[in-house]
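2024-03-11 09:14:02 DEBUG pipeline.ingest accepted 1 chain
2024-03-11 09:14:02 DEBUG pipeline.ingest length=1261
2024-03-11 09:14:03 DEBUG pipeline.predict start
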Amino acid sequence: MKKLITLIGIILIATANTFAYMAVSGNITTDQTWTTGNTYYVTSDVVVWEGVTLTIEEDVIVKFNVSADLRVLGILDVNGVSGGSVFFTSKNDDTVGETIYGSSGIPGNDDWGTVIMLDANASATISYATFRYGGDSTVGIWKQGILMFRDAQASSIDHIFIQQGYYFGLYINNTVVTVDNLDISNHNYGIYLEGTSTSSFTNIWLDPIYQRLITVQNAQLTDLSTWNITADENQCIEIYDGIEDQSEFNNDDNLVYILRNEVWAHDLDIEEGVTVKADIGSALIITDGVLDVNGSRDYPVIFTSILDDEFGGDSNGDGAATSPDKGDWKGIIVDGNSNPLTAKGTIDWCWVYYGGQQHNGLGANISFIDTRYSNFLNSRSENSNSFGIINVGQSTTVRSSAIMNNDTVGIGNYTGSSPDYGTLITSGNNVFRNHQVFHIWNTNANDVDSYGNDWGTNDSATISARVGNSFSSGDVLFDPWFEKEDLHWQSFDKTTIENETLYGPLSLPAEETPEGTIILYKTSEGRYGKMKIIDRVASSIDLWWETYNADGTTYSAGTNLHIYYSGDASFCDLDRGIRGTYLNTQSEAEFYLHNNGDLIMTGGIAEFAISYSYCSYTTHNGSTTVSETWGEGTHYVTGNFTIYGGDTLFIEPGAVVKFAPTGRLTGNGVIQAIGAQYDSIYFTSANDDIHGCIIDGSNANPQAGDWGAAYFNGNSGEANGKFRFCKFSYGGNSSGGIVTFNYGATGNMDQCTFEHSSVSGLYSYQSDIHVDSCTFQNNTNHGIQYQYYSLVDVDNSNFWNNGQYPVYVSSGELIGSNRNNNSAGNLLEGIVIASVSGDVTLSNSWSSHGGIPYIILNDLSIYSSTHIFNINSGTLVKMNSGVKLFTRGTINATAAYITSIKDDSKGGDSNNDGNATSPAPGDWENIEFQYGDAVSNIQSCEITYGGSSTAAIYFSNGAGGQVYNSKIKYSQNHGIQPSNSPLEIYYCEITDNIKSGMYVYNADSLNIHHNTISDNTEHGINVYGGESPTIDNNDIEGNGLYSIYFSGASNITRQFIGNTFAGNGTDGIGIYSLDGNKKNTFYACAGLPYYTAYPYVFLNSIHIYSSTDTIQFMPGTIVKFMEGKYLQSRGAILAENTVFTSIHDDSPDYGGDTEHNGNTVTAAKGDWHYITADMGSSIMEFDNCYVNYGGSGNSAELRFESGASGYVKNSTIKNSLADGVYIQTGEVELRDNMFLFNGRYGISVYSNNDNTLIHNNEIHQ
């Protein structure tokens, strides 16, 4: 056998939307090519055997059946080109290639399996290809991707799109893959790396990814900066179990690293600004290798719990439901037990929180176990449920760090393995606070050097009680010490050199450190001082210092100190105050500022506490006519400070801008305030003593409305505000917001806070604003308010405890994105819309992975036919009680949710009433399209709890468009009501509405197909007037009354085919009234399967008034009459192969138990009245018909009256209560009929009728 591939061949399906394609499955055992322009349908798994190449040319479309895979044991060569991509997609994806027979046209994110290179001889080269709607594979690997490499040969992929998948986009295991230009979107997870793969990545787009960007399990994670990743901020990279050597954590696009389980590594570098979050019980364990944590003052590295939303956002996706706690994770463990000579940890500028869960009997945020020369510098260890730091044996230095709020001990020093060096040095500017047992606990035989630290007290006995040692162990040496004020320890980290602020560390050769250097300091006694370098050479330095009491009087007069050195290798290191360390190759001399303000000499590192309390501020008023810069420090604005058009005010990190009650900034030009993540810019009240210098006259009690606003006026200039890492507090003493943009101004707010405004946090009027990753909290009115043609993007932001709404749109055009926002504690939780006009876009406000809804507060009316209302994918809209959305323009709604404000199942408790209210049908009015220019484009939406007085979606006066693949449920009225509407309604679920699923009024251009219409209280579809719409291929089930109901003056003109009726009150088409002045044609109501026919039920007596009109019954039609009803015509009645019987006739061949009453009511003679042609111009022609159970009121089932003519032939007329056929006058032929069991006569002919021809009939009574 040369080929084992199953090639079904070209299938031609004779429907309008299906064309030729090739169906494939099974094994490919020789080289094969899938050729340009063709569609290939993988009906079940295709396997490319080892040594075999499958080549796929450009413009090929590969579609997959449910769970089908393409498994490659050989070679896959995909040769797409720009403009001629190859597609791997679902059979239900009709947007590319040929339509597959049985396609639903609605692809899902797990329709098919995977394309996988599997085992040692497999490889792939894939260019310009798109993979989508897959990931539901049966390969047997729990981690599934659409595109997978497992234990394969080196491969390459480039210009790849992976979209709409179920799990991972790209999965790589033990394979080297070169990846260039990869775009993964709309996945839960992006990339999975496992095993010893050292793949390379460049130009990677991962957006949107709903849960984790990258997952690494026992693989190498290299420098992400080379990946050129494009992704949302605070997206996560998962690390499972371990990472390979030479791995790196990089701060690329502010990504967050998540540790899962105990993550083991040998060597790991972490660069500045990285945030690492640990899952519950997780740890980072470095074994016999090196950990380098290289944070910086402005961009420290963060290690914290996954429940900590302060850093890296809400990584576990639960909003405010959980918060971090001590002991959430096990901490950082550097373990050299197997090889102490190679193990080392250097942790610099790093904050570590919420660890301490035990690992091998030890619990700490940081554990150094048998390491050599480890360091913990300029860092923090807080909120451990056990130790802050543990040192076991070996040499570790802790300096310039904060060890605080740990449950038992700050630092523990233990005996390690042999040889035990046991040297722990904690001397130099450490801060110890709030430990339940000891700040330091020493069980090692060596002393712990702990000089020059801040213990939170000036009492030596108290300090001695807080440092402990076990019997026969070394001491903890803590004297001398100094005490800082109990402020945030980071406040003490600056030096002043010749009136200019300088960040440490500063290291200069001794001879180059400038004379005249002045250092400010503060002592534990509340005294202030300054030190000045007055002379220095390579071998000596002269210092002068003086100290003042808090009231400004002299405490210690100026004194000179001369320090001598031998050699030329001395240097001055200014770091966090002063660290005066003077070294040469032979000796070391150091100094301290002691508690009492005296400068003393001792062995150790000098650490001086520098206080901001000794500071001054700059006052601003008036305006600037040139660009200027406000640097670090405090600025006091006493009036309206104006920046004119063409000028820019630059505000630098560390600046604190305080305002008098009349103070405000007016930006007719540009204000650019760009802070840093850990060095924000503050805009606050003059009474705010927490930030910056204390302003003269401050009452230390800041309140909302203490000052004005940052105000931008586009009428007067460029008017642009750029703010990053800024905090606006206690303003808003005029209308608008604490930051206000008016009349065409523009603004960008990134990672800012707006709080305690007496009005709103941010206000926009006819302006364009972009807000990202900001917090709006405790504002009197709204977080954000905007109106009148404002374009406002609000993404990734939080709204907490504002007096009214998170975002309030009071009027005007509304266009902008609202993605991944969160709110709590506001009056309503959402983007509240009071009124709009013009074009409107509601975008991405809510999804299963986060966000807040739009809330429509009042009726929204869009009167212009040219305006467009967009509701984008993932958007949640909640309607206030009784409101409607009205348009004469266009509504485009895709994959959106529209529901009641009382519906807490989506978007949470938006009206903040707990369980006091729950959603109910009729909570809100409807979506109304009015007039012929109004267009609906509703796709894949869910619309619930509307319809308080009309249908949930209401089309009037010729409005049209489409409603596609949507759910319309729980309306108090009908689900959808088209009126004179050219409309297509298809693939929808219209269920559980109090009245009918659809109420159709004169909608002859309406196309209703492939819908599920079920469980509505009244009818599935109710049609009133006009020509009958197209109603095909619908599932109409479980409705209370009729499947389809023609309620008034309708005109039946179409055949209804492919529908399924089941479990309705009556499984048929109810006819209450017809337009008697038009031709009506009844076709067989063919169901599924097509030989099933459903009856028409005549609920009322039907009259055809015009002698020129016809009622015609086409072959296969079934008509059932309600009791006592009849059909009367003055025109023509034409019937062929048609059944006319009683509603109680349950015969399977005649529609079965249409009423669903079982055997409680059975058909009987005289159940219905008659069919009559009652004028001389009337014609009745019946051929091959079946007439049963009529003849009530002493009448025949078929009546020819007043000269009516026609024929009855090849028919059965039976079970009449009276006669079968009555002929009064007129030319009538009765031929080849069967008359059975009629109550009186089979045929009754009025006397003297010579025009009747009766022959070849059988009559059985």
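2024-03-11 09:14:41 DEBUG pipeline.report Residues 489-602 form one domain.
2024-03-11 09:14:41 DEBUG pipeline.predict end
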